[in-house]
Amino acid sequence: MTRIIAGALGGRRLATPSGSATRPTSERVREAMFSALETRLGGLDGVRVLDLYAGSGALGLEAVSRGAVHATLVEADRRTANVIRRNARELGVDAQVDIVAEKVRSFLRTPPRAAYDLIVLDPPYDVPNDEVSGVLEVVTRPQWWGSDGVVVVERSTRDGAFTWPAGVEPLQDRRYGETTLWYGRPHD
């Protein structure tokens, strides 16, 4: 069972895609991630979130529950994207959430209407680090990422050290068993 951990929707259950290759971020890792983000950002109230490789949508929906004003969730699998839509509707946050059923690289071809304050990448573990770095090179450009923003990348601990592209200052990394979270922010 996947559920929203905290905020206005805390405790509410999320449907997860059946028969899909999604790997929802565990509650323990989500709690640690959002605790660190709330400290770093001074809370999530009014934050705009971009959740790439959204899977079950748990990260973007958790951010909205904790006060994010808007979240864009990008998921390539249409059936999985429909599960996210249903979750957003049942949670009553569908007006705050855009669900895009498109591959991340395709989605990134069109610049956003406004920069994001928080960008989360949780690609399948079999996506190579160089592909993730290519996505980061796009989303860490000024039109995508606010100057006070934070980006979080979730990767398999087995992948070893993660290398940030130019323009990103590494902040910290935290290991939770098989999962490591890498935090960064813009810098000149």
User: How many H/I helices?
Assistant: 5
Number of strands: 9
CATH class: Alpha Beta
Helix/strand/pairing class, anyone? alpha/beta
Mean model confidence by pLDDT: 92
If strands are numbered along the chain, what order do they take across the biggest sheet?
5-4-3-6-7-9-8
Oligomer: single chain
Radius of gyration: 15 Å
At the fourth level of CATH, the homologous superfamily is Vaccinia Virus protein VP39
Termini Cα gap: 42 Å
CATH topology, by name, is Rossmann fold
Number of structurally distinct domains: 1
Proportion of residues in extended strands: 25-35%
Q: Specify the helix fraction band.
A: 25-40%
CATH architecture level-2 label: 3-Layer(aba) Sandwich
Unreliably modeled segments = none
Largest sheet: 7 strands, mixed
Order of helices and strands: EEHEHEHEHEHEEE
Large-scale geometry: globular
Record the SSE blueprint.
Layout: E1 2-3, E2 13-14, H1 27-41, E3 48-52, H2 58-65, E4 70-74, H3 78-91, E5 97-100, H4 104-107, E6 116-121, H5 129-139, E7 145-156, E8 168-176, E9 179-186
Characterize this entry briefly.
Its EC number is 2.1.1.171. The protein is α/β, with parallel strands linked by helices and 188 residues long. The protein has helices spanning 27-41, 58-65, 78-91, 104-107, 129-139; strands at residues 2-3, 13-14, 48-52, 70-74, 97-100, 116-121, 145-156, 168-176, 179-186.
Describe this structure in words.
There is one protein chain. With 188 residues, the chain is α/β, with parallel strands linked by helices. The chain has a single domain, classed as Vaccinia Virus protein VP39 (Rossmann fold). It is 28% helix and 28% strand. The chain is built from five helices and nine strands, in the order E-E-H-E-H-E-H-E-H-E-H-E-E-E. Strands 5-4-3-6-7-9-8 form a seven-stranded mixed beta sheet, with helices on one face. A two-stranded antiparallel ribbon has the order 1-2. The radius of gyration is 15 Å and the shape is globular. It starts with a strand and ends with a strand.
